[in-house]
Amino acid sequence: MKTVLACVLTKKLNYFEVVLPAKRIVCPHCDGEGAELRGGLKGLCLSSEDMKDHDFARSYMRGDYDVACSHCKGARVIDVVDTDSLTPKMLARYVRKLSQDCRDEREAAAERRGAE
Ligand SMILES: [Zn+2]
């Protein structure tokens, strides 16, 4: 069985790493492309003005600005925890950790906004 190392959070708020059953999915980060736009161009909204620069448009379409996906390292698929195979207890711990991560991320984002 495929496994993946994951961090879970207990009710007493102790983190620990466990080996959990895994399944392979198409990388949601790059949608199975295996590539993403280079850092600076990520999330940049290109206007039709930008595309009038034919050299730029051509290299953009050709993927000159693409780098291997940071999530799957270009493998196009990733191993994720197979939540269907978890015991209810482990699932609860795993979900608790995920929502904790979300909270941390939101707080970090709020701090970044506050710092600007
Ligand atoms: Zn990817």
What does this structure look like?
- The termini are far apart.
- The protein contains 3 helices and 5 strands; from the N terminus they run E-E-E-H-H-E-E-H.
- The model has no long low-confidence stretch (mean pLDDT 88).
- A 3-stranded antiparallel β-sheet has the order 1-2-5. Strands 3-4 form a two-stranded antiparallel sheet.
- It has 116 residues and is of the alpha+beta class.
- A hairpin with a 5-residue loop joins strand 1 (3-9) and strand 2.
- Residues 27, 29-30, 34, 69, 71-72 line the site of zinc ion.
Which class best fits the helix and strand makeup? alpha+beta
Instruction: Report the order of strands and helices.
Output: EEEHHEEH
Kindly report the spatial arrangement of strands forming the biggest sheet: 1-2-5
Terminal-residue CA separation? 47 Å
Percentage of residues in DSSP E strands: 25-35%
The outline comes out as: flat
Associated small molecules: zinc ion
Largest sheet: 3 strands, antiparallel
Number of H/I helices:
3
The helix fraction, in percent, is 25-40%
Radius of gyration: 19 Å
- The averaged pLDDT comes out at 88
Topology, number of strands: 5
Which regions are unreliable across 5 or more consecutive residues at pLDDT < 50? none
